[in-house]
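Q: Entry one of two.
A:
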Amino acid sequence: MKLRLGMIGGGQGAFIGAVHRLAAALDGMYELTAGAFSSDAAKSRATGVSLGLSADRVYASFQELIEQEKQRPEAERVQVISIVTPNHLHFEPARLALENGFHVVLDKPMTFSLAEAKQLEQVVAASGKKLCLTHTYSGYPMVKEARQLVAAATIGKVRKVYVEYPQGWLSNFEEGGDNKQAAWRTDPARSGVAGSMGDIGTHAFNLLEYVSGLQVTQLCADINVVVAGRQLDDDGAVLLKLSNGASAVLVASQIAAGEENNLRIRVYGEKGGLEWQQADANTLLVKWLDKPTEIRRTGTGYVSSFAQHNTRTPAGHPEGYLEAFANLYRNFALTLQAEQAGETASPEALDYPSIAEGIRGMAFIENVIASGKSEKKWTDFLV
């Protein structure tokens, strides 16, 4: 039985809404049933029509969606609500949905501030409902393989981590024109205290902690606004201390001219190292001190159960961003279906980002911006 899905945000012209819909549809585990796609009622209706939804399930506001869907018979109402709005419109719809009995899929970063994130944690706990946070890159099979290799101490104790996320799309003052994506991402009223570090730095941070299995304990940040007139950071680098004593370097830049989405992570341990990058997402390099580098590939029989679980096609058939995104939706659906059946989901299905990752992501944003403004060399990572 498909889970009935509602969506808040993601109207016509919104990039991430279409991505969420494709990801949710890929495995046939959700049916988009209702939506409030825009704060403009006419635009919301137009989006609903284009998606083939019944007119009475397309709403003018998220409040109306939640109130009206709650009143429908249990067998008809939506079960999961996906929130794909700009950052400042994450908390209130998520809170209202959870308090009214709906599970939530929420785009990252989780909220507008760390204070909101902590409030949302309490709401989730009190509601008894579940939340999935779409940190896409943790859904890649070979990212999961890297995490399993680190957890098994295959490369020994982690000593050093490098994670970098360069983009070039904000090399010019794009927010000065009609670029909707640039406009809200560089606006403190809608994005929050961070620009680049909030938009893509949180992804790099999540990838670092997810793959290494470690937590950041201290940081020293250099945060920059490179393009004249921009209100939020568009470039930065951070030195990090990890919970096992290792050190790390994180770079996030949206003014790296010529770069697309060149996300890359390298983890070095006592025995060897790992390297993965999104540009060649089906490949994980395992490097050794005393023997040749291994090339591990998605879809092969030798990878971990976590990598296999999140792979759909045989080796040699590329799986990319949409499939990684869909893995989060599928694992969340498997978890909810197991709960409905009175069962416990498998460890592989339970492996999706949730409230804990959301809180640490918001803590990263606030700590890194504070560190960038501080004259202290090192500051503690406060949550």
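Q: Entry two of two.
A:
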Amino acid sequence: MRAGVRLALCLFAGALAATPAHVLADPAVTVLGRDFTFPNKIDGLPARLSDFKGLTINRFVTNDGVTLSYWEAGNGPPLIFIPGWSANGAEYVNLMYLLAKRHRVIVLDPRNQGLSQRIDYGTRISRYSMDLKQLVDHLGITQADFCGWSMGASVLWGYIDLFGTSSIRKLALVDEPISIVSHADWSARERKEAGSIAPSPEPLLAALGAAPPANPDPKDPSLLARLMLMDSPYFANSESFARAVIKDDPKSLGLIMYDHAGNDWRDVVRTKIDRPTAIFTGEWSANVPSQQWAQSVIPGSQLHIYSKAEQGDHFLMFKNPVKFAADLEAFLKDAK
């Protein structure tokens, strides 16, 4: 974490609980202590961070004493994004810019991720779901649209399981298996429908901890290869920004992944989602079968499968933010 960010968090931590949310709306450039020039100039998107007028980074304290940050921009109906494992609001800079024209866009940095506090407790999806509930309460939002990507979808499933759907107007889920770890007694069909890829969390953690390929093959469908493949100027911009301003803590990230991988959300997906739902995946992703199963059991839900040419992998919303923003906007505007 940059020294300026650490100092800002320390200065604000003591007064957070008693201070109204709008008072804490500091410009992103101020909180980060720097501007940032994106490596690729793209029409319709900011060339520098300071060109994104109205982008703020705010904070609040949870009921277990953890300072969480959230990024915010725009006005209109609230749209809350929950990032995936190791992800953060900086990676959403393009999507926030596009969607803030019509929405109040909010991206939560989960505990131990992004600009949120690093701590050694609460590294469970259930606690992350409670953190989301407390963000909603902190903002005074009675109903919003929610979008969870990767592990962020699991946080939403935990949120729905614990608190129901009354605060959700519409729901978007992006490329998350229903159960990463399989049970020994599951049939091949059950594993496929759940999206299971490992018999226990350890092989997954080992794979995620491996060195990513320096020169990935554009035809390699593996997660790390797709992450390192910078063939999208949008993705190159958001990733370079995130890597410049965010420092991850591998130990705490490993703890939440261990808990995350072992959850089986099939009952929640099958029985507790009663809001209009859009599911997004892509041809490069191994998760297509599980997303198809989810669409089959969530009443009235829709499924978007991006082609390989449309950057349809696990990072589709960042690699093709113009299409994703348009598709999400159309879903949110639909009267159904």
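A: Comment on entry two: The two ends are 43 Å apart (CA to CA). The first strand starts at residue 26 and ends at 27.
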